[in-house]
Amino acid sequence: ERVAAWMGVSGAAWEIVPGNHDRKLERVAERWGLGVHGDVHVEEGIGFVHDGVRDGRRAVGLSASFVWSGHVHPLVRIRGNGDRLRLPCFFVTGVAGVLPAFSFFTGGVLVDHLDPSGRAYAIADECVMEIGCGEERVEKRRGWRGRRCC
Question: What is the torsional sign of CA 66, 70, 72, 77?
Answer without folding.
Answer: positive
